[in-house]
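A common beginner's mistake is to predict each chain separately and then try to dock the pieces by hand. The better habit, illustrated here, is to supply every component at once so that their relative placement is modeled jointly.
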Amino acid sequence: MPIPFDPSLVLIAGQWRAGASVQRLPLLNPSDGSLLAQIARGNADDVDAAVVAAQAALAGDWGRLSAAERGRILLKMSAITLDRADELARLEALDVGKPLKQGRADAVALARYLEFYGGAADKVHGETIPFANGYTALTLREPHGVTGHIVPWNYPMQIIGRSVGAALAMGNACVLKPAEEACLSALAFGHIAREAGLPAGALNIVPGLGEEAGAALSAHPGVAHLSFTGSVAVGRLIQAAAALNVIPVTLELGGKSPQIVFADADLDAALPFLVNAGIQNAGQTCSAASRILVERAVFDEVRRRMAERYGALRVGPALDDPDVGPLISARQRATVQAYLALARDSGLAIAGQAVLPDSLPAGGCYVAPTLLAPCDPGHRLAQEEIFGPVQVMIPFEGEAQALAIANGTAYGLVAGVWTRDGGRQFRMARQLRCGQVFINNYGAGGGIELPFGGVKHSGHGREKGFEALYGFSSLKTVAIKHD
Ligand code: NAD
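With all components supplied together, the output reads:
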């Protein structure tokens, strides 16, 4: 049976109900511009009800569960997610414009996060501390309480898995604010949670506009921790709101991540990663490899071989499962087109480009994937996050210059290095200023066990892996004097 959900509702205290406002927001299909659904325009009243429901869950059924019992529920949610992976992929294709294969991969990743955090729930523990005679001292890991989760539209399932999954494992009660552009899979996740027996109020979902529902959630005095994934501009607002309530915040923001190709690299192995990491999800990926740095000796060869791949990319509606689907919205397409116009006006050469077929639906938000080379490292296209299927290639000479260019943006999320030189692998890994470095691969296939997050304007705090469990818990020290 398909997930029986009505996308116009909010989930509060285990009940699907109409939002406090009768207003709705249209959800558009980016592949053809058609109206998909009307979603609730959640507001401050809905957020307040959701926080109250979460507090009640912590004081009630949810808070009483043991860590192992919480873990079992997450494992059940994982199994249901996996069973429904095709259905979730279809929802994501319609809503985000994500090619079916990628949507399915996201659903499988969500299931894997729930499996990982379900299994870990009863394996996070404190320590005993050798202290003064006559004392026993120990630490306890406790939930923060109500955690707020504000997620973007580009990878809803993966981001929910890594933040809500870890927060629930540690015993927090969550209020989730999905993005207004795409929230069907988030709502489906609410149904899966209820089907798996997650107690009422442990997960509440309030769709709505960022400046309404999102702002209300980030400012709510009942929220004890905020996890935000999105743009730098909004990240600043979230951190300011968290500062007023003096609560911890995890910021997973943007990036301008490089892949660095040295002349001794295995180019056959590197080539698919160089292109895929730029065009996956139509380039709307925080860790997209939007800068390709190539040592001069192999620059022309890499440019030619990347251009060949660009020419072969299939662009089309998400349900056709192309290599590249549409962008999320007409607004996002206009942003990317403005960057391409800037590239043209400043004389950047197009080294490779996919061809948009004539058959594309007129209302769809398509942009031809474009490779620009060579590009000056200081150019705006090499400095700013474009969030579209556009990559720039930058030539360099030697390690020192590669590092200076790679570290020379406001961001620091991910970097990839391709070289056979073992010493250089370590030197680069140590000196790149970012949250993750991949040597002779890029992304490690998602690597949900691997802590993820940024430095500089890419944010702070870590999600994924065990680190997320520490972030979603608070450490209490107990010292017992016994004689
Ligand atoms: P965005 O910041 O506009 O929106 C993200 C979320 O914040 C949405 O749910 C939105 O409703 C909400 N929001 C907007 N204004 C708000 C406000 N004033 N108060 C509270 N919430 C508010 O970002 P976007 O354009 O939807 O997403 C793209 C950005 O996200 C890119 O910069 C991308 O790099 C980043 N991103 C980062 C990661 C990561 O893990 N580092 C992952 C995915 C996306």
